[in-house]
Design brief:
190 residues, alpha+beta, six-stranded antiparallel β-sheet, four-stranded antiparallel β-sheet
Length: 190
Amino acid sequence: MADLDQLTQALARNLKRWRGERGFTLDVLAARAGVSRGMIIQIEQARTNPSVGTTVKLADALGVSITTLLDHEQGSPVQLVPGNQAVRLWSTEAGSSGILHIGAEARGPLELWSWRLMPGEGTTSDPHPEGTVELLHVTAGELTLIVDGTAYAVPAGDCASFEAHHPHTYRNDGPGPAEITMTVSVPPPR
């Protein structure tokens, strides 16, 4: 996994860069993201490590992927990410985790994730911008996907896609670990 200090510095640099490229003041970005102006200042000065939720809100408000905000190697037209440099964005003591493998900016941010949810665990995501689509493939166990209050069972080998501007939760109600590969496509900013 990438070094936390390296990620903090990359996030600070990239948040400033993309805020400047979008022409957003601190106040505009704070309003668009629902994140305090003070938090944005702390992130841009590399004085804090924001939560995954805060990072997602900032990426969504800027119309870029999380990988764009956390990218510490810029400039090459090819992005190679060895497995040991994937970014673990969340984890629990029981062993569940969310790892961001790679992302791209193509008409809008595009991200590829692998998730592991231990039995009885889950995670809830805030709704993404209108037009966001998530594709997922369950590679082991069974995922309970809850979108806008409706639960869907997605067993190993099956895939699902959904409009992620609805509230959604990923849960493992099974007896063993659930493993998921997921792609998130976010529309460009309007």
